[in-house]
C-alpha cells in the first residue's frame, strides 16, 4: 500500500512525552460509558431533537443519535463520515473545497458551493446554525453527541430547513480536573496529536473550563507526478482549537464556547475519464502529454496528472454563548447567541498543466478548465435565538424568536479552452464575482400535551413557525446585476405519539418546511438567476421499541414527502461561459423508510444495523427543448442527484475477556449504498450516465485495548484500525462540463491502516 508510514512526529511525540512525564500528577478519570448498562441492557441515549432533553426512545421524531464513545470508537471526527452509519443520509466532503460538506437526507440536499444558494440540510453546533456548506465539514474535537434529524425541520430549528438537520453538541467541562492526550499515525504519512484539559471547578467561582487542541497532517491519497507528496491531491495540514467555559450559579447556567479551524492543503483529485473525440484529439497533440491521452482510465486512481496549484487555505471560527435562567421549577428562559466567520482561498486543478495547443493567437498554453489561484470566498454571520420553555406534568411547550444575518462574497475566476475546430482553440476566462447578504426573522411555538384520560400514554404535539427572509446580491461577473428579494412562510408540525407500553412507542406526524428563494450567481446572460422558495410537506409514521429486557432495540419510520418548487441546482459548463449553471424549480415526491436495530445477544457482544430506502421521483422538471426552446417537462428521464436508493449498515463490538486489567475489544463495520447520479439528466450533461457512481460497500474494523494501567492513576488505550479494508474503488463526485466536451470523477479514500493511542488521567 502506497504511503503506509506509522511514525510518531512532533505533535504525537509531545503528547506522549507529556503523558509519561506527568505520571502520578493527575487524578484518574473514568472512561466513557459503554453501550450497555451493567445488567446487559441497551443504554439510553438523551437527545434534544425537540429543544429539550428526553430519551431517544420516547421522542416521536425520526432521529439517529451517536454518543461520544460511539463517535470515538468509530473514528467519526467529521460530519461527512456519518453516512456510513445513518440510514438515508448521503454525506461526504466537498471535493473541491477544504472544509466543505455535501449532505443529502431522504433524497434532498445541496452540492452547490455558491454563497447565494442555501442548503436544505442545516448543520448546527450547540444550536448555532452554520449557514454555508463550504465551511460545515470542519474537524471535531471530542463531540459529546451528534443527532441527525430526518425530514423537514420547519418549527424548532434556527433556519427553517426542508430536508433535515445535523445537530452537533460539544462537551461540557468535566466535574474534576482531567487531562487526555491522543495521537496516531496511519497510511499516507498521516499523523495527529490532540490534547484536552478539563479544569474541574475553579475555586468557588461556579466556573469550569475545558480547552482542546489538535494538529493533523497527511500526504495526498493520489499521486500527482507534477507535485511533491505533501502537495498531492488530498494532502492536509490542519490546526483545530476548541474551548468552553461553563458557569453554574443557582438557577442561572452559562456556556461560552469558541472553535477555530485552520486548513491548508490540496483539493481531492479530479480525474478526467470521458471526453469527446474532438477534445481527445486536440489535447493529444500537446507535447507535454508525451503521446498519452488526456483521459485517464476511470478504473485507475493511483496516479492522476494535474496542474500544480497553490495550497488551499480555509480558516473558520465561531463563538457561541448559551444562557439559561430557571424562572421557576417549571419555566425556563434560554438565549443562544452565535457568531461565525470563514475565509477561504480555494484554487482547484481539473487537468494536467503545461499543455500547448494551436489557438487564435498562435501556439499557447491551453487547458480544458481550471479554477484560478485567486479564487477566494468569505462569509460572516450573527444569530440570536430566545426560547421560553415550560415543563409541567402533562404539558410541555417552547416558544421564542430567531434572528439571523449574514454577509459574504466570492471571487471565483476560471479559464478554459473552447474548441473552434479539430486543431484550433479559443482561450477564454470567466468568473463568479458577487457580494451577498441575507436577513431572517422568525417566531415559533410548539406545545405537547398528554391527556389524563388516557393515563398519559397519548401525546399530542402541535407547532408553528413564521419566517421572513430577505436576500440581496450585488454582482459584477459573469453579469453585472443587483437584486433584492423578500419571502415569507408559515410552517407547521402536528404529531401524535402513543406509548403502548413502557418499551413501545408509536407515532405519526405531518410536518412542513421551507427553503428561501434566492439567486444563482453562476447563471449567464439570458438565464434567469432568481429562483422561488422551496416548500415541503411530509407524512410520517414510525415506532420505537425495546424487547427482551432491553436487549433488543428496533426503531423504524416510513414517510411520504411532497415538494413544490424544489430547487434543483445544475452545473452546465457551457462553452460561452465555462462555468455556467442555473437553479430550476421542480415538483417532486419522495417516499421511503428507515429501520435501525441494536441487539445484545450475549454479554460483551453488541450488534447493530440499519437500512434506508428512498424513492425520489420528479413530477415536473422543465427545460427548453433542443431546437425549439419550448419549455418541456423532462421529469420522466431525470434523476435526483447524490441520492442512493438503498443505504445499509451492519456492525458489531465484542468485548473479549480481560487480560489482567486490560480490556480488549473487536469492532467491525460494513456499510453499502446503491448507485447514484450526479446530475438530473443528460440533456445538458451528456456524460451523466457515464460518470454516475455504482453501488459500493466499505468494510472497516479495529482492535481496541483499553484500561491499560500506567502507574496508579493514568490509563491508556491503543487502537489498531483499518478503513476500506477491501480497497474498494468508489466515486464520491462527478462533474460534467457539458459543452466543453469532457467529464470526470473524484474517487473516495483508498484502504488505510493506522494506530491510535489515548492516555487519560
Strand-helix topology:
Elements: H1 10-22, E1 46-47, E2 54-55, E3 63-67, H2 68-73, E4 89-93, E5 101-105, E6 108-110, E7 121-125, E8 128-130, E9 145-150, E10 164-169, E11 178-186, E12 190-198, E13 207-218, E14 236-249, E15 252-265, E16 271-275, H3 277-284, E17 312-326, E18 331-345, E19 348-349, E20 356-359, E21 362-365, E22 370-371, E23 376-391, E24 395-421, E25 424-449, E26 458-477, E27 481-501, E28 504-515, E29 518-519, E30 530-531, E31 534-547, E32 552-571, E33 581-602, E34 605-620, E35 622-624, E36 631-633, E37 646-655, E38 663-673, H4 688-691, E39 696-710, E40 714-723, E41 731-736, E42 742-747, E43 752-760
Overview in brief:
It contains four helices and 43 strands. By secondary structure, it is mainly β.
Keywords:
single chain, 761 residues, mainly beta, Maltoporin, Chain A, 22-stranded antiparallel β-barrel, 5-stranded mixed sheet, 4 helices, 43 strands
Please provide a written account of the structure.
The protein has 761 residues and is mainly beta. The chain has a single domain, classed as Maltoporin, Chain A (Beta Barrel), CATH 2.40.170.20. It is built from four helices and 43 strands. The chain has a 22-stranded antiparallel β-barrel. The protein has a five-stranded mixed β-sheet with strand order 3-9-10-7-8. Strands 4-5-6 form a three-stranded antiparallel β-sheet, with no helix packed on it. Strand 20 and strand 21 form a beta hairpin. The protein is globular, with a radius of gyration of 26 Å. The two termini are 36 Å apart.
Amino acid at each position: 500500500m502506497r504511503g503506509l508510514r506509522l511514525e510518531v512526529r512532533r505533535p504525537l511525540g509531545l503528547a506522549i512525552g507529556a503523558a509519561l512525564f506527568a505520571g502520578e500528577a493527575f487524578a484518574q478519570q473514568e472512561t466513557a460509558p459503554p453501550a450497555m448498562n451493567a445488567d446487559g441492557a441497551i443504554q439510553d441515549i438523551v437527545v434534544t431533537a425537540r429543544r429539550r432533553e428526553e430519551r431517544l426512545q420516547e421522542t416521536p421524531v425520526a432521529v439517529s443519535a451517536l454518543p461520544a464513545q460511539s463517535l470515538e470508537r468509530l473514528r467519526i471526527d467529521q460530519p461527512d463520515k456519518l453516512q456510513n452509519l445513518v440510514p438515508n443520509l448521503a454525506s461526504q466532503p466537498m471535493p473541491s473545497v477544504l472544509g466543505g460538506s455535501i449532505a443529502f437526507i431522504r433524497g434532498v440536499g445541496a452540492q452547490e458551493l455558491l454563497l447565494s444558494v442555501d442548503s436544505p440540510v442545516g448543520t448546527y453546533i450547540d444550536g448555532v446554525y452554520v449557514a454555508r456548506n463550504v465551511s460545515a465539514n470542519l474537524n471535531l474535537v471530542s463531540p459529546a453527541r451528534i443527532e441527525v434529524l430526518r425530514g423537514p425541520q420547519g418549527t424548532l430549528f434556527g433556519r427553517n430547513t426542508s430536508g433535515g438537520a445535523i445537530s452537533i453538541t460539544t462537551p461540557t467541562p468535566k466535574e474534576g480536573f482531567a487531562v487526555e492526550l491522543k495521537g496516531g499515525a496511519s497510511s499516507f504519512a498521516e499523523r495527529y496529536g490532540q490534547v484536552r484539559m478539563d479544569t474541574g471547578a475553579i475555586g468557588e467561582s461556579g466556573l469550569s473550563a475545558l480547552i482542546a487542541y489538535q494538529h493533523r497532517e497527511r500526504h495526498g491519497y493520489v499521486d500527482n507526478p507534477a507535485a511533491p507528496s505533501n502537495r498531492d491531491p488530498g494532502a492536509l495540514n490542519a490546526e483545530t482549537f476548541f474551548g468552553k467555559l461553563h458557569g453554574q450559579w443557582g438557577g442561572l447556567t452559562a456556556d461560552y464556547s469558541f472553535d477555530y479551524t485552520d486548513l491548508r492543503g490540496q483539493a481531492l483529485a479530479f480525474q478526467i475519464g470521458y471526453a469527446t473525440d474532438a477534445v481527445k484529439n486536440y489535447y493529444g497533440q500537446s507535447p507535454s502529454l508525451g503521446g498519452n491521452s488526456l483521459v485517464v482510465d476511470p478504473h485507475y486512481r493511483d496516479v492522476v496528472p494535474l496542474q500544480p496549484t497553490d495550497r488551499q487555505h480555509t480558516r473558520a471560527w465561531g463563538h457561541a454563548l448559551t444562557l439559561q435562567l430557571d424562572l421557576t421549577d417549571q419555566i425556563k428562559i434560554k438565549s443562544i447567541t452565535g457568531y461565525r466567520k470563514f475565509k477561504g482561498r480555494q484554487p482547484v486543478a481539473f487537468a494536467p498543466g503545461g499543455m500547448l495547443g494551436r489557438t487564435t493567437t498562435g501556439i499557447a498554453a491551453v487547458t480544458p478548465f481550471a479554477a484560478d489561484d485567486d479564487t477566494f470566498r468569505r462569509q460572516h454571520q450573527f444569530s440570536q435565538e430566545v426560547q421560553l420553555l415550560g415543563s409541567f406534568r402533562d404539558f410541555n411547550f417552547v416558544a421564542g424568536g430567531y434572528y439571523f444575518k449574514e454577509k459574504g462574497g466570492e471571487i471565483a475566476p476560471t479559464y478554459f479552452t473552447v474548441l473552434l475546430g479539430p486543431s484550433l482553440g479559443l482561450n477564454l476566462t470567466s468568473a463568479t464575482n458577487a457580494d451577498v447578504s441575507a436577513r431572517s426573522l422568525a417566531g415559533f411555538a410548539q406545545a405537547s400535551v398528554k391527556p389524563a384520560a388516557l393515563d398519559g400514554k397519548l401525546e399530542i404535539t402541535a407547532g408553528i413557525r413564521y419566517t421572513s427572509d430577505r436576500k440581496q446580491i450585488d454582482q459584477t461577473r459573469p453579469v453585472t446585476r443587483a437584486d433584492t428579494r423578500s419571502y415569507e412562510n408559515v410552517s407547521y408540525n402536528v404529531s401524535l405519539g402513543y406509548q403502548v407500553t413502557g418499551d413501545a412507542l408509536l407515532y405519526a406526524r405531518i410536518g412542513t418546511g421551507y427553503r428561501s428563494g434566492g439567486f444563482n450567481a453562476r447563471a449567464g446572460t439570458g438565464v434567469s438567476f432568481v429562483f422561488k422558495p422551496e416548500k415541503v410537506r411530509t407524512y410520517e409514521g414510525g415506532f420505537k421499541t425495546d424487547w427482551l429486557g432491553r436487549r433488543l432495540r428496533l426503531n423504524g419510520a416510513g414517510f411520504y414527502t411532497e415538494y413544490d418548487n424544489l430547487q434543483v441546482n445544475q452545473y452546465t459548463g457551457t462553452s460561452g461561459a465555462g462555468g455556467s449553471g442555473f437553479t430550476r424549480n421542480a415538483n417532486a415526491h419522495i417516499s421511503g423508510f428507515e429501520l435501525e436495530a441494536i441487539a445484545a445477544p450475549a454479554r460483551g457482544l453488541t450488534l447493530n444495523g440499519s437500512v434506508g430506502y428512498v424513492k425520489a421521483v420528479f413530477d415536473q422538471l422543465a427545460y427548453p427543448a433542443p431546437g425549439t426552446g419550448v419549455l418541456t417537462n423532462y421529469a420522466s428521464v431525470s434523476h435526483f442527484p447524490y441520492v442512493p436508493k438503498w443505504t445499509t449498515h451492519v456492525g458489531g463490538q465484542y468485548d473479549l475477556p480481560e487480560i489482567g486489567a486490560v480490556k480488549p475489544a473487536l469492532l467491525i463495520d460494513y456499510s453499502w449504498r446503491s448507485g447514484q447520479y450526479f446530475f438530473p439528466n443528460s440533456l445538458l450533461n451528456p456524460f451523466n450516465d457515464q460518470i454516475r457512481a455504482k453501488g459500493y460497500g466499505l468494510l472497516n474494523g479495529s482492535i481496541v485495548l483499553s484500561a491499560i494501567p500506567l502507574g496508579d492513576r493514568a490509563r491508556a488505550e491503543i487502537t489498531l484500525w483499518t478503513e476500506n479494508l477491501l480497497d474498494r474503488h468508489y466515486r464520491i463526485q462527478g462533474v460534467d462540463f457539458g459543452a466543453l466536451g469532457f467529464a470526470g470523477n473524484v474517487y473516495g479514500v483508498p484502504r488505510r491502516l493506522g494506530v491510535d493511542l489515548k492516555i487519560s488521567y
